[in-house]
Write a structure and sequence with these properties.
UDP-N-acetylmuramoyl-L-alanine:D-glutamate ligase, nine-stranded mixed beta sheet, 11 helices
């Protein structure tokens, strides 16, 4: 199902510029390397245009914001737009503070994003203009379930139409939507929320994947989300076999990402179209 998409990443090894947060920077770099991409982390405003120019995609993650990096994000994003490079937005913690929310909307006004990925509370903040994000975690009242799934798909489609970006809402149930399509993915494991940065890692992986698959962007986002979720499942299986803990889960997650094949992924994904 996703052979060509995964092969393109492995063969072309895209260079991805990440302006990400200081908590998960190392994990994001390792995640990109695990899927055969090449990361470069740079947020100095004096060099971001040059760095973005030599890369094939840009990932903007607002997890540890400050005023200096916001300006660098805007400068890099506008340069990427001028070069027709895909730009990924991870609005970490949008809704948790006015600064994060205001920055999110400033970025959306200044930059055309190809993909916006976040948890349900972050994406609701982008949609509604206000939110109830609990730090960097989703508000329990927002969690996607079978009862509100169709409603969530509808607003994700509307947000995609409004922003021109593919929307990826990740959690226990993942939703990928554009204005006309939606995909549901039910992979992953609860313990993925107990290690920092799994969402950030996915956003970084999305940068590598869409960089070299722009002709099939929707399927590519679905592939990357499924890859992360199923890798989490495989990592959790090893943890359980060894009676290990969350520290091991983090390591095994990178292992699973780095050894994943299209055949293995196609055999493990739980995906449906809506």
């Amino acid at each position: 199902m996703f052979e060509k998409i995964m092969d393109n990443v492995k063969i072309q090894k895209p260079l991805v510029h990440c302006i990400t947060n200081s908590v998960t920077m190392n994990d994001c770099a390792n995640a990109i390397l695990a899927v055969h991409g090449s990361p470069i982390m740079a947020d100095e405003i004096k060099e971001v245009e040059d760095i973005t120019s030599i890369c094939q995609a840009l990932v903007i993650n607002i997890g540890t914001l400050n005023e200096r990096t916001v300006e660098a994000m805007i400068k890099a994003g506008q340069k990427a737009n001028a070069l027709n490079h895909p730009v990924i937005l991870d609005p970490v913690g949008a809704g948790a503070s006015s600064f994060r929310s205001e920055t999110t909307f400033r970025l959306l006004n200044k930059i055309q994003f190809s993909v916006i990925r976040g948890n349900i509370s972050e994406i609701k903040t982008v949609y509604q203009g206000i939110g109830t994000t609990k730090g960097v975690d989703a508000d329990i009242n927002d969690i996607v379930n079978e009862e509100n799934l169709d409603e969530t798909i509808d607003f994700a489609r509307e947000l995609s139409q409004r922003t021109g970006a593919i929307i990826a809402i990740t959690g226990a149930i993942d939703i990928i939507a554009d204005a006309n399509h939606a995909t549901i993915i039910r992979n992953g494991c609860p313990n993925m929320s107990r290690i920092t940065g799994t969402g950030c890692m996915l956003s970084a992986i999305l940068g590598a994947y869409v960089a070299v698959n722009q002709d099939s962007m929707f399927d590519t986002v679905s592939c990357a989300v499924a890859l992360m979720g199923y890798s989490g499942e495989l990592a959790q299986q090893k943890v359980q076999q060894q009676d290990a803990g969350t520290g091991s889960l983090r390591v095994y997650l990178i292992d699973a990402l780095s050894t994943m094949t299209a055949e293995k992924l196609n055999g493990g994904i739980k995906i449906e179209e809506r």
